[in-house]
Amino acid sequence: MDIRQLQYFISVAEHLSFTVAAKHHFIAQTAISQQIQAMEKKLGVRLFTRNSRSVQLTPAGTVFLKEAKLLVSIATDAIKKTQNAASDSIGSLKIGFLGPNEKYFLPELIHTIRRKYPGIDLTFTQNTADTINEYLARGLLDLAFSECYDQIEQPGDFEWKTISSHPICATLHVDHPLATQSKIDLLALAKEPFVAIDSLDYHAAYEHLVAFCARQGGFIPKIVSQHRTPETVLLMIEARVGISLLPQFLAFSGNPNLRFIELTGERAWVHSTLVWRKNNNNQLIPLLWHELQNVLSCSPDNLANGL
């Protein structure tokens, strides 16, 4: 089994399509099918269930997908380190990010570092909060743009630097009866169906939602669906599946069908952070933190929109 086969498997798993995966790698569909079959024979398990209409991961395939991504990441990093050792590279940074909030500053930060330090090799991985924490702990990332919540304990072996703080708002469809309110009492949401971020991928955000409703509203939210990305949560709210409590910066998605309304009483906050392992001695981490602070201080428009 080689890296190429792992990459084929990851593509099929992410697209749930042999046809799309084959096009992505510019090979014939029969070729990629043969590679997957060879992997299944080597492993002694079925990775996919497939018929003429659909492709699905088996439980074994779901487990292997996570490990395959780690193996490809390790191999890619080893290749880059070897190449850097034979070049004039200053060093490298493996950076993770969540997605929704970083768009307000990350492009300018990347541009600044590439312009001022062309010898630094930057690689980026977008993932969920819990996967990012795992990758940091295992040394697969040097640092990450993540998030933390008040009264939710964070891993103590990480260094957390707050970039910005955002209030949590009631997030409703514009047709919801409460959508015309300027502020909402949390208790008014007690009987509403809630749409939440997935507890396995964003456990801190999920725990904060449940704990905040219990502490401030005296109720446990009725969570009717969970989703892996904030964008999908917003989509479900727009589809009138339910409501949620979400960071205010998501309002800048500009969706006219959604309302973000301030809560009365004690406010809850989510903090956008830069985080890394305390025992990570990569000397480029302080440099990136310094350049990020410069970017934020020189970008009032970004601060007004999302930070």
Q: How many helix segments?
A: 10
**Percentage of residues in DSSP E strands:** 15-25%
- CATH architectural designation of the largest domain: 3-Layer(aba) Sandwich
In the CATH scheme, the class of the largest domain would be: Alpha Beta
CATH topology of the largest domain: D-Maltodextrin-Binding Protein, domain 2
Could you give the order of the helices and strands? Answer: HHHEEHEHEHEEEEHEHEEEHH
Classify the helix fraction into a percent range. Answer: 40-55%
The number of domains is 3
Number of strands: 12
Describe the structure.
- With 307 residues, this protein is an alpha/beta fold.
- The longest helix is centred in the N-terminal third of the chain and has 27 residues, at 59-85.
- The strands form 3 sheets. Strands 3, 4, 5, 6, 7, 10, 11 and 12 form an 8-stranded mixed beta sheet that branches.
- Mean pLDDT is 89; it is low at 302-307.
- Helix 5 (106-116) links the parallel strand 3 and strand 4.
- The protein has 3 domains: 3-70, Arc Repressor Mutant, subunit A; 89-163 and 272-305, Periplasmic binding protein-like II (D-Maltodextrin-Binding Protein, domain 2); 164-270, D-Maltodextrin-Binding Protein, domain 2 (3-Layer(aba) Sandwich).
- It has helices at 3-15, 18-25, 29-43, 59-85, 106-116, 129-137, 203-217, 230-238, 284-297, 300-305, and strands at residues 48-50, 55-57, 91-97, 120-126, 143-149, 158-173, 183-184, 193-197, 222-227, 244-247, 258-263, 269-277.
